[in-house]
Design brief:
Blueprint: E1 11-17, E2 28-33, E3 36-45, E4 49-59, E5 63-72, H1 74-90, H2 95-110, E6 113-121, E7 126-132, H3 136-151
Antiparallel strand pairs: 1-2, 2-3, 3-4, 5-6, 6-7
Helix pairs in contact: 1-2
Length: 153
């Protein structure tokens, strides 16, 4: 990702993450400079259909804290489980329909457990970003870098 830097602005680090297990070629890109956090994350529908991207651009002076963790999305899990079971149930009647339901169900199930990082601004507003749980250690490293730069301001 090409970032246009301001006067006296330097890139501290740049990270690419996988926001989705199935669409592994899509990457969320974040750039930390000594003045701001910027980047983009792809938007996906049903965990399978790419629909553009969300831009991130926040000055470091407005960030109060950044935290990371993992999150289990119970609704996604239930939807994935129902789709998968329904796919197996209709497999005898319509093979293609059952296979499509199973594939959609498995995709939703795989994306029901995510690694997250949450940016809280000085006003208390939180913005969260979800990434695949396989990237948990990279996300934690990135969050540590952001917090270090914020502490040095």
């Amino acid at each position: 990702m090409s970032v246009v830097l301001g006067k006296d602005e330097k890139v501290v680090s740049e990270h690419k993450f996988k926001p989705n297990l199935i669409l592994f070629w899509l990457k969320a890109r974040y750039v930390l400079t000594d003045k701001r956090l910027t980047g983009s994350q792809p938007n996906v529908f049903l965990g399978l259909i790419p629909l553009g991207k969300a831009q991130v651009n926040q000055p470091l002076k407005t960030i109060a804290s950044v935290n990371s963790g993992t999150k289990f999305y119970f609704k996604k899990f239930l939807i994935g489980l129902v789709l998968t079971i329904a796919g197996f149930a209709v497999m005898g009647e319509t093979f293609i329909g059952g296979l499509i339901a199973i594939i959609l169900g498995v995709v939703v199930l795989l994306n029901s457990y995510m690694s997250t990082f949450v940016v809280m601004n000085n006003g208390g507003q939180q913005v969260g970003y979800s990434l695949t749980w396989l990237e948990k250690s990279k996300v934690q490293q990135f969050v540590n870098e952001i917090n270090t730069v914020i502490a040095e301001l």
